[in-house]
Amino acid sequence: MTLRMFSSLALSGLLATSLSACQASDDVGVEKPGVEKLGVEIVERHPFDETSFTQGLEVDENGSILVGTGRTGESRIYRTTTADEQSHSHDLDEELFGEGITRHGDTVWQLTWQAGTVIERDATTLTEKGRASYPGEGWGLCAQQDRLILSDGTDELRYLAPEDFSEIGRVPITLEGEPLAGINELECVGDEVYANIFMSTDIVRIDPDSGEVTALIDASRLPNNGPDHPDAVLNGIAHLPGTDRFYLTGKWWPDLYEVRFVPSG
Ligand SMILES: [Ca+2]
C-alpha cells in the first residue's frame, strides 16, 4: 500500500537473523532445514505501461496478463500482453482505489483498498457483474482450487469462499517464528502462496496452511526504472502456468520482468 508505513527495518532485522543462521550452518557443514534462500534470474524484459500503479498481476488462462491498478481517480483493470497490447480496460469509480485481482472460474475479483468493496467481474470481458463487502482493508488476492486468499497489509492471510467472498478462516504469517507484516500482492501456485513484502524488494513463499514462510526471495537485483518516488516500489507477481517462471513488476514501472527463482549465494 502507499500511505501506510511499514517497518522495513523490522523485516531487515528478521532477514539478517535468518541469513546469519544460514551462514552459521554452512560454516560447520551442517544441513539444517529452514527457510530456503533464493534470488531471481532475469529471463527476459518486456515493456509495461508506466502509468499503471500496479496493485494486482495475474496470467489468465489464455496467456494474457490481467492488471489491476490503484490510486483514487486513476484505478482500472485491463488485460495486456508481453508487447503491452492492452484490451478490456475498465475504469473504477472515481472514489475507489483498486487493489489485488484474481480469477476464479468465470469471475475476476478486484479488491479495493479501504472501501470494503470487492468488484465481481466477467472473466472474459472484465465488465462488472456485482459487488460484495468485506471488513478491513484489501491488498493482495489470489485463488486456489476451493478458496480465495486475501492479504490486508498485516501479518494475516484470510481465506474466502469463492462463491460469495465470505470469510472462512485466517492464518498468521510467521518467518522463523516471528510475525511477518506487510504481506502485499499475492500469487497462488499449487498449494503455495508467494507474496511481495510492502516497501521492500523481498518476496516470500508461504505455506498457507501453517502460515510459515518456507522461502525468502531477494529480488533486489531487478532494475527499478520507475520514477524517483517512494511509492514506485516492487509490486506485482504472476506465475506463468506450466513453467518455473514468474512475471514481476512494480508501481509505475516501465518493465515487466520474466524471471526464475534460483538458489542464491
Ligand atoms: Ca498475483
TrEMBL record:
Residues 1-23 form the signal peptide. SUPFAM superfamilies: YVTN repeat-like/Quinoprotein amine dehydrogenase (SSF50969). Pfam families: Glu_cyclase_2. It comes from the Bacteria. Keywords: Signal, Transferase. InterPro entries: QCT, Quino_amine_DH_bsu. Transmembrane segments: none annotated. One of its GO terms (molecular function) is glutaminyl-peptide cyclotransferase activity. PANTHER family: GLUTAMINYL-PEPTIDE CYCLOTRANSFERASE. This is Glutaminyl-peptide cyclotransferase. It comes from Corynebacterium yudongzhengii.
